[in-house]
Queue: 2 jobs
Job 1
Amino acid sequence: MGFDQLRNSWETFAQVDPLWAILTETDKTGNRWDIAAFFRTGRSDVDRFVAQAQAALGDSWDPARGRALDFGCGVGRLTQGLGAHFAEVVGVDIAPTMISRAGEYNTEPDRIRFLVNDADDLSQFDDASFDFVLAWIVLQHMDPQIGHNYVREFLRVLRPGGGLLFQLPYERRVYVEELPDTALKGRVRIGARLRKVAAGTAFDLPVRVTNTSKAIWPADFVETPIRVGNHWLDLAGEVVQFDDGRAALLAPLPPGQSATLQLSCSAPLEPGRYELVVDLVREGVGWFVDRGNRVDSCTVRVTPAGRSRERVAASPPRDAAGQGDRLGEAVMEMHTTPIAVIEELVTAAGGEICHRETWSNPSFLDVEYIVRKL
Ligand SMILES: C[S@@+](CC[C@H](N)C(=O)[O-])C[C@H]1O[C@@H](n2cnc3c(N)ncnc32)[C@H](O)[C@@H]1O
């Protein structure tokens, strides 16, 4: 995902369901986070971070008089917590709506400030202008090249002796998840009008999928993921091409939510009229239609190669007002960086890793780094 799409996705999350986008607890979708409970998590997280940083950096590091930067601050969950330890705190985020919400929740505007940082660097801040930089559950959501440049920037804006605490998964866990059979309930809708396509043409078809089960559908990096696929049938209903394209869920899809995926298809090689059938599939387990779900389909004229005029024309979304759809347009990507790459990066940027802690969650092997600016 490029920088513009990253910004647009997070702006969509911020407008639709910001607290859930920050802490994606499945029972908190649809703006169901209690604000006080949400900010309590930030205070206890920061108390732990500061204690860890103090132990790693030593007594010469004194937060009480220092200035802290909270990178990817969201609505200020951790920024407010930093305010309890540092004299001055700045929170930056790529999404303007996150920053305006953070301003509304700000309890100490004289010491805690929020700014939009709409750049792939931190050029709005001087060298050596912070004592602490925090980047928690942020860098994993962007292309590693963009994320690695921010790590260099964190070290540039830190004073010598200052501390950087960030977290970034280092490996995906591939696992066979315990999805019950009842999770295989969903809806698919073709999101474009496709009437004519040249034989053999490869094209992307937008497909809107909705999870109508009670279970969260995992994103694609599990062993038996839920994906969208398609088949081609002739008008007599005979299958001419079973199992054509595939589209993956890039982020977990909670119950009741929708996402729009781009399904890569290829038109049959023989011209004629066909039925393009789209269905959900759990890889290695089976198609959703075989479990009582409905497919979506459209009739397509496949013209001789090179003679097609109309290709895939996007039609207006049929239920654009739904929150799930709007969330579906936004992608929360997940990336990893091997520990050795971070070690090299930090050293080259003038830092020293003084604490490293690893743990695993259902999808990733994760690591927290505390770095001293040399
Ligand atoms: C999962 S939230 C975490 C928010 C906050 N760190 C917390 O733990 O409460 C990720 C945040 O990073 C922000 N973000 C993503 N990419 C960013 C970038 N390139 N620069 C600044 N903020 C970014 C998003 O807008 C979002 O608010």
Job 2
Amino acid sequence: MTYHSNQVDGLDYASNDHLALASDLHSIRRSGWTIITLKQLVEAVIRQRMDSLPRRSLAITFDDGSYFDWYDLEHPVFGMQRSFASILREFVHSDPVYSGVSGLVTSFVIVSPRARECLDQTCLIGQGWWGDEWWPIAQAEGLFSIQNHSWDHKHPGVAERLRYGSDYGSFQQLRDSQECDWQIAQAQAYLVSLNGAGTARYFAYPYGDCPDILAYDYLPGRQQQTGLMAAFSTEPEPVTAASNRWLLPRYVCRRDWSSESELMSLLNSLKR
Ligand SMILES: [Zn+2]
């Protein structure tokens, strides 16, 4: 399951991913689902041991990685927003099953500091809300695992002078292995320099765009160099024993469900 902490467009479930996440955590518990880490999920896929996971289990991921993931912030229109981290801490506090779990949720972050500086101006309100000083703190606390969502997302809000290649606004076109290195390997190196060796293991495709050059060539071929073990799309499907580890699907909040009852219908449709 995927949430975006920047998605604050109102003060109800359907327009605010923070309110949706808080509600969903309790729905998940009440309906008997278990939250597993991305590490547990990926290892089960790689070892072909999906039966080793709890029945009815799911993993939680966040995309883009601004301060709304980590800090409670005063939104200019909608007031104080509790961060995803605050919501999770309260949830874990109320359910000791999850206390001490390392990497309970995974945050896929846009890695380039200069790209984030631009996006702070173009997508947020220019208050310096897209820093990375919280990544090693979050990783050390254990609640979050910080992972790779590419160097700059090929986001159209990134200044022209900082870009590599063309077609910003989509991640479908990576021309060659140099561009893959620029988006993937460069981001891996930065994450490792901040969070420590062996911490950057998973990649999430920006916009859910999964170019063949990454899924079938670069990622499987360069595991040793990049340190990556799996990659996540936003194809709305459950992960199964037949899933390709470089194209693991995810459901996205608002696109695939936008109320408590829709979440319940979705989860009920997946029961095994
Ligand atoms: Zn994204």
